[in-house]
Give the backbone structure.
Amino acid sequence: MKFVRNDGSKKTVVPPGAELVLPPEIGGLKKPVTRSRNLRIFPDSLFISESLMDKFVIRGGNPLVGNVRISGAKNAALPAMAAAILTDEPVILENIPDVRDIQTERKLLVSMGAEVELGYGRAAHRTTISCKNLVNPEAAYELVKTMRASTLVLGPLVARMGRARVSQPGGCAIGARPIDLHVKGLERLGATIRQEHGYIEATADRLRGGHIIFDKITVTGTEDLMMAATLAQGETIMENCAREPEVVDLAALLTRMGAKIEGAGTSTVRIHGVEKLHGARHRIIPDRIEAGTFVIAAVLTGGDLTLTNCEPTHLGALIQKLEECGVKITAAADSLRVTNGHQLIAADVTTEEYPGFPTDMQAQYMVLATQAQGTSIITENIFENRFMHAQELVRMGANIKVEGRRAIVRGKTPLSAAAVQCSDLRASASLVIAALVADEETIIDRVYHIDRGYERIEEKLKGVGAQIRRIGEILPRRAAAPSVVA
Ligand code: EPU
């Protein structure tokens, strides 16, 4: 073993197998290096959480050509993992994406006493969850603040354990995103709610069926209450429900666990509560947003890309809009091919609940609009502050004017490489796409946002011809020097 002390040099390549060692005064933590990393080391620095500092360096101009396998949907996997709380038998989930939000949910379940077993090798995307010995029905602030979807455990915990204590999520980069509709719905099912010290505490001996009409369509709200109602006494009718494929996927899992659900995927869902649910095996649907992101990247780089393991029927609104812009897409049962080389035509977009145009594709579509001929008006209807990427795109040469909930994009403008910063998951995806189109080398900071929801995006992109690499950087701090053990 070689011991390399930080000597204040500018840049060091840290080889795989090495360990990054924090100084003893901050705990002497060790972190293994799994692949070669190019780290900048400053004098008197310490390692801040390395991945938080990761950046992407992307050189634009290469067309994306080849095949990309789409991962399981993060937003279907998160409620499916929470559903395991509803039974004391193991729930086996296949096609779970390896992304940071899933790791956060694992931590959350383990903190409650669940056993979470990860598959390896060919079963690398399998997760088995056993909630036999749940001891701590709580989602602490530390986890909820990093992932709002942690609140999905609220309904299942009250339904199975009779008690839940879940931190209120607080503000979010894309909008206020309250969870008042989850809380109101639980009250309609007979739960007693107390809100204090930043936590929501819900209790009920046994939930009872009720009639819930959502004031507003909410995806995780529909999922949370659907889970709660499966173990309630009697029938629950929920109206104005979200119709997203992720809701349908959750209902399919719950049905396999013994729940009685009708109407998932329509705006009225009926649930006949049962005494007990049992274990089940379920395969998570493909990620429609990951697929859509790759489609737009392929279109803008003039590529020829085939997406496998995807579900084109879940991408209806996006495909229709892209065809309006002049894109050629060929859909088969579980694959999608996109080719482009033509001039794109501007088209307006308004985000809506499913089956409308998804808000989670708005940022990526905005990059497309910068490359289309004419003016596109993009209206964001779901979240009040989801245009943070617009300013970053302007820094890269785009002509975008934001007026409240509308962004006016005038194209076509060449994009030029710049240093840009991610603000949320989908905004990050838009910056990656813009960088693939831009001239020269773009540096994208705070890519931990993208790691929350895209599995190995840089490897997938590299595999189809993109020039992208991840670098870690260590920021200067007033502390003793870190060491590298090789
Ligand atoms: N809303 C309320 N009260 C509530 C719940 C929602 O006012 O109790 C409002 C929200 O503030 C928002 C609207 O209702 O204005 C819709 O929010 P929704 O509850 O549907 O969003 P969500 O369930 O928190 C999910 C996805 C998001 C996606 C939205 C909209 C998951 C884990 N998250 O969030 O995904 O943008 O639906 O489709 O399923 C992402 O993956 O990047 C992401 C943000």
Remarks:
- The chain has 14 helices and 31 strands.
